[in-house]
Specification:
The chain contains 4 helices and no strands. By secondary structure, the protein is mostly helical.
Length: 98
């Protein structure tokens, strides 16, 4: 599906905002919050998954429970001309590891 085929309206954006905050939010809760039916919420989320607007649902782990005091999450978006491992190699080569 191309970018031109993906249409996102105000309701879809609100759904994305809710799911970004808590991806476990129920269809019923989303529907109630947005004034749409549970089935409409389910159908819209399914559409967002099919058109790859939503790529995955993730879990945020509390690493302090495992003894880590600092955790860094790094998201790097690369264009089609770069390979992710090349970017990682560049970042690691410039880091000042002890």
């Amino acid at each position: 599906m191309s970018k031109a085929d993906v249409r996102i309206d105000r309701i879809d954006l609100q759904i994305l905002k809710i799911l970004t905050y808590d991806c476990r939010t129920s269809y019923r809760s989303i529907g109630k919050t947005l004034g749409i039916s549970t089935n409409t919420a389910r159908a819209r989320i399914h559409k967002l998954i099919l058109n790859k607007t939503i790529e995955q649902f993730t879990t945020l782990v509390n690493f302090s429970l495992f003894g880590y005091s600092n955790v860094i999450t790094l998201i790097i978006k690369v264009d089609k001309n770069n390979q992710p491992h090349d970017i990682i190699d560049k970042v690691l080569s410039k880091s000042k590891a002890p």
